[in-house]
Write a structure and sequence with these properties.
five-stranded antiparallel beta sheet, single chain, alpha+beta, about 100 residues, elongated
Length: about 100
């Protein structure tokens, strides 16, 4: 009985460990290119979400997500919100969760 129970526990643990988590993301987008213009509210990277172009700061991305300019354009799924403040008219966003999609 103990062997059967131990076997079932091991099998169950393997099944649970092998399941892929379906994480939910609010949007899909495409990181297009770096913004090389020089102004007070310029810079960062352009990202297109639902046909609207936004900007974000690469150094403010969630830890663990990186990309290089050689990979651009890059398709992504993400959770984000518009930033408020002096440069709000330039469509800056803050990204809370992001991953590459193929």
């Amino acid at each position: 009985m103990k062997k059967t129970l131990s076997f079932l526990i091991v099998v169950f643990a393997l099944i649970v460990a092998g399941c892929e988590k379906n994480e939910k993301y609010d949007s899909t987008g495409k990181i297009i290119a770096a913004d090389m213009t020089e102004c007070a509210c310029c810079g960062g990277y352009f990202i297109k979400i639902d046909e609207i172009q936004y900007r974000f700061e690469k150094n403010e991305l969630p830890s663990g997500f990186t990309f290089s300019d050689d990979q651009l354009p890059l398709n992504v799924e993400l959770n984000w919100k518009l930033k408020t403040g002096a440069c709000a008219g330039f469509q800056w966003i803050s990204i809370s969760k992001i991953r590459t999609i193929k």
